[in-house]
Design brief:
- By secondary structure, this protein is mainly α.
- It has two domains: 121 residues; 147 residues, Four Helix Bundle (Hemerythrin (Met), subunit A), CATH 1.20.120.
- It contains 13 helices and two strands.
- The radius of gyration is 30 Å and the shape is rod-shaped.
Amino acid sequence: MLNLPIQERWASIPLGGVPMEKINLPFFYQLGALLNPLTKMEAKASTRLDVWIATFNIATNVRVLLDSPYTLIVCRVAGEELISAIEKGNEWIRETDHKEWGKEGYSADSIFQQLIEKANKFQTVLSEELQTLETYHAAQKGNYSTTGLIKQAENILPESIRNKMNPNIIEEIRHSGRCLVFDNSTASGFHILRAAELVMHEYYLVTCKPQPKPVGRLDSWGTYLAELKKSTAPDTKKVIALLQQIKDDDRNLIMHPERVLSPDEAFGLFEIVKSAIITMGNKLPTRRKRQHK
């Protein structure tokens, strides 16, 4: 009899820094593939060995399911009962001489009948509970990995640029990526613009070299752009053009409560701000050099 092992022994795992878990769909599929043949078997002397073999891997993986971060409630009792029934079947096999495995006997039939019944009960209850779970699929955004946007959206930037970003910038990009995934579109735009402003401030310090350095950020994007226009540094015109477009088309409007971004608009803004951050980031020193200075 074919007995499929479950390759990945996890039912769900927390996503770092996010109050949600990733569900392992193949785990549930493979667990069902293990359970289903067992539920269709008969408990009789000639099939005891087959029934016992059909239980391989089931108890271990039911335990994985019950102990997973996403705790199932309704099927828990049925799962524990199935594990206990499998253990009783294992115990009978261990304590019974193999020559007696196929011998007629009510007590043995009862053990294996209980095992099959508990498998049926668990499969039924688990199936019903899974139908009640609030599970959703977030549509992919462009070519980006959904999990990547949820956990580490800063990976949209080349590593050489990421290494120049301070933790506050990284955190804003992460917030924007998570909001983008779940179509919190205006919030995504708000956070990616905050990231752009933080990068713009560092770009301004490197490009314009103000003396003395400002204690905090300048009062507006317009002020930054006015200062950058005084610079003769290479590529500054490209940066100014990008930032001016973002300011006029999105930044100023998003600051008003009546402006609501659609998912497509949020994605477009995400992309153009990413381009601006990369363009500015190319001119920034590594964080180690800045800290050394």
